[in-house]
Every structure is written in C-alpha cells, then in structure tokens.
Design a protein that fits this description.
- The structure is a single chain.
- The protein has 750 residues and is α+β, with helices and mostly antiparallel strands.
- The protein folds into 3 domains: 207 residues, Aldehyde Oxidoreductase, domain 4 (2-Layer Sandwich), CATH 3.30.365.10; 163 residues, 2-Layer Sandwich (Aldehyde Oxidoreductase, domain 4), CATH 3.30.365; 299 residues, Aldehyde oxidase/xanthine dehydrogenase, molybdopterin binding domain (Aldehyde Oxidoreductase, domain 4).
- The protein is built from 20 helices and 29 strands.
- Strand 4 and strand 5 form a beta hairpin.
- Helix 3 runs parallel beside helix 4 and helix 11 crosses helix 12.
- It is globular and about 75 Å long.
C-alpha cells in the first residue's frame, strides 16, 4: 500500500506510527501520517485507547512528547500551524526544558489520531496553552529522566548535568542517554505541575530567533510545498466541486443530471436536498461540470436581503438581546454633573478573511472509517460536527490538520472539510478533493461581524475622564463547529438538514470593549443583532472594532481637553507595561513625529482581551486631495508579550497583524444587494497590494521572567485607530466609519 494512502484507524498503534514515520516530520509528513492512524480518541475528552494498549491520558507525559532511541524527541500539539509560526516556538520550549538542540525536537500537530485535544487554535492562546502544557510535560520528563539516571549511576540528581540528551555524572566518566533510560518504553507518569523548570537566565534556545523551516518551500515551491492541503494529491484521487445556491437559503428545484453525467471525466453527481456537487477524474473536468450546473440548475429563491445602506441605522431596532458588560448606577445623573461631554458613533462593516488560497479539503472513506485532511483550526470540534452531520461515531472519523494557505479565524476550511466528508461517503474507497472556487470563498465564507459603537465620555474639572459609556450592536463573533451539524454549511442544505444556527459567541463582540484606562464610572452594553450575512470568528473578533472606537475616542477626548494624545493617555494609565509600550513607540517616532505635506502621525494602544499582549502602534499617513489618494506610509509598533520564545516569530506576527489591519482599515468591506453578496473577486473586494504595503517596524519588549502572552491578534485594533487618528491630524476630518477612504474625506469636506 502506498504510505500516503489513508488506512483505517485501528491499523497500528502510535509507537508503530513513530517508527514508520521515522520521526522526520515537523508538521506534515502527514502524507506519512496517513499511513498509520494511531489512537482513536473519544470526542471531546482528548483521551482514547490505542489498539492493544492502555488508554492514552492527556495528563500523562507521553501524550505530549515521546523519546526515541537516539534521544531525539517528538512533541505532540493539538494546535495547528496557520502561518503564526507556533511549531518552531513549541519545539523551542521543549528543547529548552530537555536540554536538547532544536533540530533534535520534531513536532506533530493537530491530529485526532495522534495529538491531544486542545480544541481550537484561536484566541492567540497557542503559546499560553499548548506552550504551557508542553513546558510542563518536558520539565516532568527531565525530572523523571534525572531520577532514573541517578539510580543508574548511583549519584544524587543534584550532581548530574545534562546536554544534548546525555546525562553525565560528576566524574564525567559515567553517563547515560535519554534513549537508554527509556529503553523503548515511554514516560507514562502524570505531568507534574510543580516539576522544576529552567530559569530564564539559563536559557539557550528560548528567546533566540529561529527561522521557520517552511518559509523556503513557501517562497520557492521546492520539495515540501506539498505540505499544504491545496497541493495534496493521494493515489486515485477524485476532484469535486460543490455548486452553491445563488443566495442564502435558496432551494434546489431541478438539475440537468443526464447532460452533466455525459460530460468527459465526470464519474458522479451528488444531490442531497439542496446540496449539489460533481465528481470527476480531472480538476478541470470538475470545473467544467460545475460551470454547467451553475448555469442550468434551477433554484427557488427566498426573500431578498435587506438593503445594505440601512445596515447601521437599523441595528438598534434589530436587537434581539442585551448583555451588560459593566454597569454603574445613576449614569445619566453622572453625565449631568460634568462640565464637558463628548459623543461619537463608529462603525465597522462586514469583512472577509479573504484567504488568497481558497479553502480545500481531502477526505477518504474506506472500510467504515473516514479520514479528513483539512486546514481547520479545530480538528476535534470539526470531527464532532462531521460525525453529527453524517451520523457516524466520532471514533470512526480521523481528522488530520494540514497547513492551509493562511487564515486567522473561521473561514471556509471547516465547510470544505464537511463537503469532502459528505462526498467521500458517497464514493467509498477513493480520496475526494474539494477545492472551493474564488467566488464561492468570497460569497460563502463566514464573515467578521459588522458593528455599531456609540460612545459617550465626560471630563471632570481636571480634564480627566470621569464617566464613560459604550453601547454596541453586533452579530455574534463565532459559529465555529463544535459538535452541532448546523454549524457546517453543507449540513444546512442536506435533505432534512438543520437550520443555520441562531446562537453564537456574543462575548467576542464585546472583546476589548472595556478601556484599559483608569475611569471611575464605566457603563458598557452589548446588543445582539441578527444581521443579513453569515458570520463567525475573524482575527481578533470584536477587538478590532472596539479598539478602533475606543482609541479614536481617546484622541477626541484629548482634543476636548486640549492635551496631547500621548500625554492624555499616560495620565489615565496605571499599568506600567501599557505605559512602556506606548512610550516606546512615541520615542521611536519622535512623537508627534515629522512628516511631509499632507501627512501626519497617529497613535493608539491596547491590551488584547485586556489580559494578553500589550501593543501600541503609530501610523504615518499621507493624503493627497488632488490625486485622491490616502496611503499609510509607515507603521511602528511595540509589543510586550511577556517572555519571548522566538523573537522572529513574535515580530512576524505583529508585522503581519499591522499590515492586515491596514488593509481592513483602508479598503475592506463586504457588499451585497437583494440578490446576494456582490464582493466576489479581488476587484469588488480589494485588499492591500504589494506596492501599497507600508514600511513596518516592530519593537519587542522582552520580559523573560513573565509568563508568555498571546500575541497573534494584538495589533489589529491599535493599527486601525492609529491610522484613523493620523487621518484626523493630517486633514482635520474625523472618519468614524470603516474603511477609511479618500472618497469619504472628499465627501465630508464638501
């Protein structure tokens, strides 16, 4: 059998997989992974039973790492690499605690047959969560190995030294390797939360920049580029395309079935309710059939979507529920008692993930076992939802995480996986590859929610903020698969399938709605609305809109007070780490900064989720009214993510976040008409192009004795507000409606 072909879950145990895989994979050798399924774990528990062996418990050391005869180590993480560079950082953590060179540590990611259940790769929590777990497991392993070596060598553990997987006694003549100490077995002891961890002062690996191995293959297309699910080709693979309805909720009436089946290469047509797909031997043959089906299939259309122009004005009247985030008694009385009040309303449109590589998945159904290769950010939750959709036991489904084209949030990855799963069951024994088309990606991915934010603030006699009110309206910010079939797009269109979910994560909408500043009286209300478009988690969730509003409003309050925006913020900050990132950026740009005619600097600050990384950003913009152009020339950021594991990775994350936010802030907005979404390509949904990318600089504030903090979503909000504040300083016009465009400046200036 070809080692890349999927096999049933019960074909071999985890040890056999590691032997056969040769421990050579950093993330995917998942073509090799597919040759052995490892353990099937019970849904939601993260534990399961290896065939012929004891249950695998995620509280055991061997759930997180395995030591091989040559003393190298394979680490297992339930998180997936989606461009954030966590695999290198997690390897660094393990290598550090085990006193190994980095190249002696390999890693396997996000696989329901092999790795712990760590739910989603989301919320900037991979280093905080998986990193902590791996650090503890590695520290426990080191402690246990030292104890074994002490017994073997007949000396106290305190007299032993470790280097490169070799433990040496005090006389330097007696030594033993990690591989000798495990002797082919594994460390099955429970992870000890109090196992001694290395002191930061002794670090040799953590805190030092290490490159991401996949970057070269990404850029050059060299060997290894097939690590990406879009490039995955298994023997006997079948290509499929799903025909989406013309608009949400449309019902399929008729299909030119005979004509399609007669087309060259077509081997199957799957119609299940309003779910329609074609399977073909070649990809272009599948596309040709897909095009014909799009032209000739007949659909019953539901009522048209509401007018886009009424979105924000209609939000207060469409509220279906309210959550009070912070409250104060006598709010109106407090506002009447102050000298100056400022009010402003800010809006954020629906925005796309806009992954440049459309979503893709491969699935194979053989001997009652379903294997899915996907770039989902939650392999275990996806498995539970697919099991519900197909009415299969979760133990009969294996979901293998594979690199995708890059996306932070819930884009079409899970839905493409559901498509592939449904089609694989319809065509057993042949792998089915589903590749979304660009227009389907743009029209059907779950968007980041639109938001309306009404802020009111008051200054006391000392020009300090005495009372603050935020009322925000937003749809939910996550409908990620988590066990309910309704969360999968395919399931909603199957015969007798569930209705789209109405409940979701409203808390994401008020993420970062509480300012980090000292404000005596604070009142925040989040109102749930049910908007016209499909939504879910987009990078930073509601933090992007909330921080844009808060930090724009801080500049407006500073102007009311007649004070410099940086000085005004510092006056309201008691958190020294927040002050440090703000001051670092201000120094770097020599605030208020010098710029050319028509340009200015703006600045903003936030702490992601009010508990993760601190980030301040300064933005330099240039506005040319004659040329009708608004550009961001330069972005300077400072980030404090506690202990820095990989400086290159943290800098990359922050740079990328700033650039993505600049694109959102200047350009991105989903558009629709009554008949459906109209942002179907890069012309109708523009993103920042290479010539438009600003110069970016990131300052790292390393705090090696502090816990690592999530950093992947820290820059989005501050970047948006810094740009908005720079626009105001350059033009005297305050833009409160995203995206910020030259057209809006011209319109306001008339």
């Amino acid at each position: 059998m070809d080692p890349r072909s999927p096999t049933p879950l019960a074909t071999c145990d985890r040890r056999d997989f590691l032997r056969r895989a040769g421990y050579l994979s950093i993330g995917f050798s998942l073509l090799g992974l597919s040759g052995c399924a490892g353990e099937a774990r019970a849904s939601g528990t993260g534990a399961g039973a290896a065939p012929g062996g004891p249950p695998l418990d995620d509280e055991r050391v061997d759930a997180w790492l395995r030591i091989h005869p040559d003393s190298s180590v394979t680490v297992f993480t339930g998180k997936i690499a989606i461009g954030q560079g966590i695999l290198v950082a997690l390897r660094q953590i393990a290598a550090e605690e085990l006193d190994l060179a980095l190249d002696a540590v390999k890693i396997v990611m996000a696989d329901t047959g092999l790795t712990p259940n760590e739910s989603y790769t989301a919320g900037s929590a991979s280093i905080e969560g998986s990193g902590r777990a791996i650090r503890r497991a590695a520290a426990t392993a080191r402690m246990l190995l030292l104890e074994r070596a002490a017994d073997r060598l007949g000396v106290a553990t305190g007299l032993l030294s470790v280097a490169g997987g070799v433990i040496t006694g005090p006389d330097r003549d007696a030594s033993v390797t990690y591989g000798d100490l495990v002797a082919g077995e594994q460390l099955t002891a429970r992870v000890a939360a109090d196992a001694p961890q290395k002191k930061p002062a002794d670090y040799q690996v953590v805190g030092h920049p290490r490159p991401r191995p996949e970057i070269v293959t990404m850029v050059t297309g060299a060997k290894g580029a097939d690590d990406y699910v879009q490039n995955l080709r298994l023997p006997g693979i079948v290509h499929a395309r799903v025909v989406r309805p013309p608009v949400y909720g449309a019902a399929l009436r008729s299909v030119p079935e005979a004509e399609v089946r007669a087309m060259p290469g077509v081997i199957g047509l799957v119609r299940d309710g309003s779910f329609l797909a074609v399977l073909a031997e070649g990809e272009y043959q599948a596309i040709q059939a897909w095009q014909l089906l799009r032209q000739r299939a007949v659909w019953d259309r539901p009522a048209p979507l509401p007018a886009q122009a009424e979105l924000f004005s209609a939000m207060p009247g469409r509220a279906t529920g309210t959550e009070v985030v912070a409250s104060v008694a006598g709010l109106e009385q407090k506002f009447r008692q102050v000298l100056a009040t400022v009010e402003a309303t800010y809006t954020r449109p629906y925005q796309m993930h806009g992954s440049i590589g459309p979503s893709c998945a491969v699935a194979a159904y053989r001997d009652g076992q379903l294997t899915i290769w996907t770039h989902s950010q939650g392999v275990y939750p996806l498995r539970a939802s697919v099991a519900a959709m197909l009415e299969l036991p979760p133990a009969d489904i294996r979901v293998i995480g594979v690199r995708g084209a890059g996306c932070y949030g819930h884009n079409g990855a899970d839905d493409a996986a559901a498509d592939a799963a449904r089609l694989a069951v319809a065509l057993p024994d042949r792998p089915v590859r589903v590749q979304w088309m660009r227009e389907d990606e743009h029209a059907w991915e779950p968007y980041g929610s639109a938001m309306r934010l009404q802020l009111r603030g008051a200054l006391d006699g000392n020009n300090r903020i005495s009372v603050w009110e935020t009322r925000l309206w937003t749809d939910v910010h996550s409908h990620r698969p988590g066990g309910d079939a309704a969360e999968l797009l395919a399931a909603q269109y199957l015969e007798g399938g569930p209705e789209p979910p109405t409940e979701g994560y409203l808390g994401g909408g008020y993420r970062n709605s509480q300012p980090i500043y000292r404000i005596p009286d604070l009142h925040i209300e989040a109102h749930r609305i049910e908007g016209p478009l499909r939504v879910s988690a987009l990078r930073s969730l509601g933090a992007y809109g909330n921080i844009f509003a808060i930090e724009s409003f801080m500049d407006e309050l500073a102007e009311q007070a007649g004070e410099d925006p940086v000085a005004f913020r510092l006056k309201h900050l008691s958190d020294e780490r927040a002050r440090a990132v703000l001051e670092a950026v201000a120094r770097q740009v020599d605030w208020p900064g010098s710029t050319g005619e028509g340009g200015a600097w703006g600045i903003a600050l936030a702490r992601y989720k009010n508990e993760a990384a601190y980030c301040a950003v300064a933005a330099e913009i240039a506005y040319d009214p004659a040329g009708e152009r608004l550009r961001v020339l330069r972005l300077v950021g400072a980030i404090d993510a506690g202990q820095v594991i990989n400086p290159d990775g943290l800098r990359n994350q922050t740079e990328g976040g700033m650039i993505q936010s600049a694109s959102w802030t200047l350009l991105e907005r989903v558009t629709w008409e009554g008949g459906g979404v109209t942002s179907l390509d890069w012309e109708s949904y523009p993103i920042l192009r290479f010539p438009e990318v600003p110069e970016v600089e990131v300052l790292l504030i390393d705090r090696p004795t502090e816990a690592p903090l999530g950093a992947g979503e820290a820059a989005q909000g501050p970047t948006a507000a810094a740009i908005a504040n720079a626009v105001y300083r350059a033009t005297g016009q305050r833009l409160r409606e995203l995206p910020l465009t030259a057209e809006k400046l011209r319109s306001q200036g008339r």
